[in-house]
Design brief:
EC number: 2.4.1.21
Largest sheet: 9 strands, mixed
Helix content: 25-40%
CATH architecture of the largest domain: 3-Layer(aba) Sandwich
Radius of gyration: 25 Å
Number of strands: 18
Pfam family, one: Glyco_transf_5
CATH topology of the largest domain: Rossmann fold
Catalytic activity: [(1->4)-alpha-D-glucosyl](n) + ADP-alpha-D-glucose = [(1->4)-alpha-D-glucosyl](n+1) + ADP + H(+)
Mean pLDDT: 94
Family: Belongs to the glycosyltransferase 1 family. Bacterial/plant glycogen synthase subfamily.
Number of domains: 2
CATH superfamily of the largest domain: Glycogen Phosphorylase B
Keywords: Glycogen biosynthesis, Glycosyltransferase, Transferase
Amino acid sequence: MAHAELHHDRPPSISVTRRQSILFVTSEIADYVKAGGLGEVSAALPRALRHHYDVRILIPGYRQVLSQIGSVEEIARLPASFGIPACGLGRGMTKDGLTVYVLLCPELYERDGSPYVDPFGVDWSDNDIRFARLGLAAADIACGNGDPLWRADLLHLNDWPSGLGAAYLAWRGEHIPTILTIHNLAYQGIFERDRLSSLGIPDAAFHINGVEFYGKLSFLKAGIFYASHITTVSSTYAQEITRPEFGCGLDGLLRTRARQGRLDGIINGIDPSWDPAKDPYLVSRFSAENFRGKRANANNVRRSFGLDLSNGPLFAVVSRLVHQKGVDLAISAAETIVSQGGQIAVIGQGEPRFEAELHALAQRHPGSVGVKIGYDEGDARRMYAGSDFLLMPSRFEPCGLSQMYAQRFGSLPIAHKTGGLADTIEDGVNGFLFGAPCVHRFTDAIRRGLETFRSRQRLSAMRRAAMNRPHGWDRSASKYRQVYERACQTAAYV
């Protein structure tokens, strides 16, 4: 009887399923430091996934991170290994509550410059050690040797700086699932063979089926070879990188991963701050239902860039000024734009030769071409908001964010049909695409844009289509969840 009463008084059992723990490993995050699109994705994707997973971020403790993150508690010491120094593992939090693990190693990370280069634009000579430290820390945390109260069920690695994370797990015989996202295959983290021992890479791994890449070692190849699953940032780019012309020497391995069902393309989204109805940087806000405010932003851009006030079309270039981005094509096409009454505003920095050529272009066409070397967030947002067209003749573009920013702000992108540009622009509907990356094809697309500008009804229809295109992270995050699930299921049977 007593036993029955005890059973009756016991609270009903409730099955609680623990949310999976995801460690998102990145070399940059827009909250604190960014050099490109990876920083934007690292800020947005974990936030889009946080409702479904216990997702946390791991990043090196650069000076920019430590100065902005606020309180950081050191929760562990990660030991030295081979030539990789010991470091502290700090735990902090973003303003909206995302947990961020920070590698505390002043000798590696607390420097002026960007995450990858010194103030003069030269790669740090110890980048192999700096980012091997990141990959090794990711593996340690996944194995339960970091935060004593948390361990990762899955590592989400990003680009070459974290690529060794998957390899270190494999060399330990651990079967923790790993996802590697390739944001740009052209950056591979290539180092000399004599660095193997310093990085703790087994001699047997220096092989075509391992980290070896044309006699050197590649962090990115290590990630591709050892990761459970590979993603890249658009479906078209996922196909392109399996071909020699886009594969950067890794197309054979990537074709193998595609045949195995271990390569997916998932287009990036953009964060909700890109809303012309709410953006605090704009001088006049607007929407797809009423975009009259574009004119005030256009006039602001014209004044800021030294352009004449005009009723003609305004073209924007917001880009790194490098060969990949087709800056030379934009310079060559400028004569066509100016001769048709158009104006061009350019913001960005990059190769000195392109910076010089753009300054010379502006001097040849005062009042019609304006150039600012550098980057300013407010200027960029007002350029998207005020321009009629965005020039984006990239020779290759894994995903691209600028075309989506432009579309959201009612500026029609004119872009090469490649990578994420092909996946996000519908030709003649919400932008213009051209085939081969040459001046002739590019100027043909520009002329189609100019014809559209002269038809206010058609221009308005295309602007609305561009602004109403889905731009958020929901669909992309759902696809990442499917990849996570497949990777975890596969690891369970290894």
